[in-house]
Amino acid sequence: MKKILVKYSSEITLKGLNRKTFEDLLIRNIRQRIGKEANIIKESGRIIIENYTDETIEKLRKVFGVLGVAEATVVEKDVEKICEAAVDHMKKINFKTFKVECKRQDKSFPLNSLELSKKVGGAILKNIKDISVDVHDPEVTLMIEIRKDAYIYSNYLEGQGGMPYKSAGKGVLLLSGGIDSPVAGYMLAKRGLELVGVYYHSHPYTSERAKEKVISLAKKLSEYTGSFKLYVVPFTKIQMEIIEKCREDELTIIMRRFMMSIAEEIAKKEGALCLATGESLGQVASQTLESMFVTNSVVSMPVFRPLVGMDKVDIMDIAREIGTYDISILPYEDCCTIFVPKHPKTKPRLQDIEKSEEALDIKALIDDAVNNVEIINI
Ligand code: ATP
Ligand code: MG
């Protein structure tokens, strides 16, 4: 009989009295992703899945908290039966060198791990021609786990690791169509933070396709999170007001302060306790330390910037791995050139910016934007 064996992060098992809460949440998240039909069984340090479909393994690999999965042949804990099943399993694989590794969760099993490995390895050698044992660099490692039953597998596939989604509270992610913010969202979601996305849309200066692109990114993230709520905030009026009433070189920084304030308002409505962006130190003018200080000063919630110390190439690598890169590089600009100053300030001073903002009716602009959001549930 075949079953899927799911390993989960050791961080979850280290949670002491809270361990059960984390495990239950992980199981709920798995259930939501793989559907009602499958049986999900918790068994000391593993989750076992029965009655699954062809897509189940790939879905499980995207659930945060899952360290890895393997489809195992499951037999009774009897040495002869284990040997027989191991030989059958290996006969279906093409290989020249192998080794056997055993793990005993059930310590009452008569053979210890080494003895069982030797026994099973011997049976394989006896029954399959032209193969040999290589303990250092085998083509195939056959795993045998002795639990309530014996689990035999050789194809262990890694998952994402991390903590169960929603185990760490809720935050608002400023999600643009760029490369960085989806990666930032992925990293925080992987630590268990539930994300609510906010996208600032400058219609008609940014196209519907730019918005569609952000929706596609949210969809991609939802492959990991299970669902995703996206706020689309009308931003044109605010940008026009800033252009009209403030200095050109302060446009970006003031615009970013509005983004933060609006995100904080949405966070309050959502019961979220932090904001998150894809900023990386020094990447562009608005991401110098001085700019970040001024942007940060307008809100009181913590702002998480998981990419702050990362190089662009490394961020791009993650984007490729998680599947957001190809969407992010689609050519629909997220900010029309009229909204980008020719020489943005790289070292803005808070008091100067606050002075400039006196020309704006900030509260009314924020309220108006927040009252006119479009909510998209994915
Ligand atoms: P990204 O690749 O994530 O767009 P970026 O390198 O283009 O980032 P900026 O445009 O300065 O950098 O944006 C910095 C951060 O501000 C983004 O990572 C994102 O979190 C947020 N942000 C920028 N533009 C928008 C937008 N239109 N809607 C929502 N968030 C935005
Ligand atoms: Mg951007």
TrEMBL record:
Gene Ontology molecular function: ATP binding; CCA tRNA nucleotidyltransferase activity; tRNA binding; tRNA-uracil-4 sulfurtransferase activity
Name of the molecule in the record: Probable tRNA sulfurtransferase
Native organism taxonomy: Bacteria, Bacillati, Bacillota, Clostridia, Eubacteriales
EC number(s) reported in the record: 2.8.1.4
UniProt keywords, alphabetically: ATP-binding, Cytoplasm, Nucleotide-binding, RNA-binding, Thiamine biosynthesis, Transferase, tRNA-binding
Record-annotated THUMP domain positions: 54-157
ATP-binding recorded as keyword: yes
UniProt enzyme class: transferase
Organism this protein belongs to: Caloramator australicus RC3
Record family assignment: Belongs to the ThiI family.
Protein's job: Catalyzes the ATP-dependent transfer of a sulfur to tRNA to produce 4-thiouridine in position 8 of tRNAs, which functions as a near-UV photosensor. Also catalyzes the transfer of sulfur to the sulfur carrier protein ThiS, forming ThiS-thiocarboxylate. This is a step in the synthesis of thiazole, in the thiamine biosynthesis pathway. The sulfur is donated as persulfide by IscS.
GO biological process: thiamine biosynthetic process; thiamine diphosphate biosynthetic process; thiazole biosynthetic process; tRNA 4-thiouridine biosynthesis
Reactions accelerated catalytically: [ThiI sulfur-carrier protein]-S-sulfanyl-L-cysteine + a uridine in tRNA + 2 reduced [2Fe-2S]-[ferredoxin] + ATP + H(+) = [ThiI sulfur-carrier protein]-L-cysteine + a 4-thiouridine in tRNA + 2 oxidized [2Fe-2S]-[ferredoxin] + AMP + diphosphate; [ThiS sulfur-carrier protein]-C-terminal Gly-Gly-AMP + S-sulfanyl-L-cysteinyl-[cysteine desulfurase] + AH2 = [ThiS sulfur-carrier protein]-C-terminal-Gly-aminoethanethioate + L-cysteinyl-[cysteine desulfurase] + A + AMP + 2 H(+)
Subcellular location: Cytoplasm
Annotated pathway: Cofactor biosynthesis; thiamine diphosphate biosynthesis
GO cellular component: cytosol
